[in-house]
């Protein structure tokens, strides 16, 4: 990479860092490119050199951060054979652990969940944070199908509805915690959150 390209890349990252901080502080709709330029210490022209508009900058911000859910799902599939519920428990624990441990993911997820105002919360790129990939959807639903075949899936649930509820409840836990990450320790509550989730989806023998 040439020196000029390296400098351009550093400027681009500086702009994205400034956008992340400004969106987090005052919301997406209330943030202008002038605000971001001031926070980044660059001109608006420098922003336009890298990004077509605020929407393109927002896209790039979301693309920088991904929950590695495919990796978490694949990791849960490795090792000795276990019950489908055990695999799904590991997926849920892994997703919440990543949310707790990854500070940048926390910041961007907070922007998506709590700083995107009315017209912007339907932006298609938000799916990077809020939706499972097709791979993850397929594998998770297959695990619920296996649980159904074993007779451990709770009555009244289909593999598809169970997969949907599994995802929605995890997103809900993240949404709630990110409102104020000081309200409780996600690391300490994670096991109990996931156990409650599992008991709602599976027939689990009492301890």
UniProtKB/TrEMBL annotation:
UniProt domain HTH tetR-type: residue ranges: 9-69
GO molecular function: DNA-binding transcription factor activity; transcription cis-regulatory region binding
Coiled-coil intervals, chain numbering: none
SUPFAM superfamilies per the UniProt record, alphabetical: Homeodomain-like, Tetracyclin repressor-like, C-terminal domain
Alphabetically ordered keywords of this record: DNA-binding, Repressor, Transcription, Transcription regulation
Record feature DNA-binding region, as residue ranges: 32-51
Alphabetical list of InterPro entries matching this protein: DNA-bd_HTH_TetR-type_CS, Homeodomain-like_sf, HTH-type_TetR-like_transc_reg, HTH_TetR, Tet_transcr_reg_TetR-rel_C_sf, Tscrpt_reg_MAATS_C
Membrane spanning residue stretches: none
Gene3D superfamilies in the record: Tetracycline Repressor, domain 2
PANTHER family: HTH-TYPE TRANSCRIPTIONAL REGULATOR ACRR (PTHR30055:SF240), HTH-TYPE TRANSCRIPTIONAL REGULATOR RUTR (PTHR30055)
Protein name according to UniProt: TetR family transcriptional regulator
Species assigned in the record: Vreelandella rituensis
